[in-house]
Specification:
Number of strands: 0
Shape: rod-shaped
Structural class: mainly alpha
Radius of gyration: 17 Å
Helix content: over 70%
Distance between the termini: 10 Å
Number of helices: 2
Largest sheet: none
Length: about 80
């Protein structure tokens, strides 16, 4: 494999890592908002937290795929 291809995969993995970490921060923010929500807003805040968890899971899956691709093509 050409080094440029491996570098491209490494760059993509790093980008996906950053997106995953941003999604993690979103989960924490949504959780804090849910905990601070007034009684009438808790259902909506809870739904926002679940949506943030879904986004984090999707980002984690994309990151895992990128790492698997990178590991499979690691130069000798």
């Amino acid at each position: 494999m050409l080094p440029s291809t491996y570098q491209r995969l490494a760059d993509e993995a790093m980008e996906r890592y950053v997106l995953w970490r941003e999604a993690c921060a979103g989960v924490h923010s949504a959780y804090d908002a849910w905990q601070a929500a007034r009684a009438g807003d808790r259902r909506l805040a809870g739904a926002a937290h679940v949506a943030a968890l879904d986004r984090e899971q999707a980002a984690a899956s994309l990151y895992a795929e990128a790492i698997e691709q990178l590991a499979a093509r690691q130069p000798a």
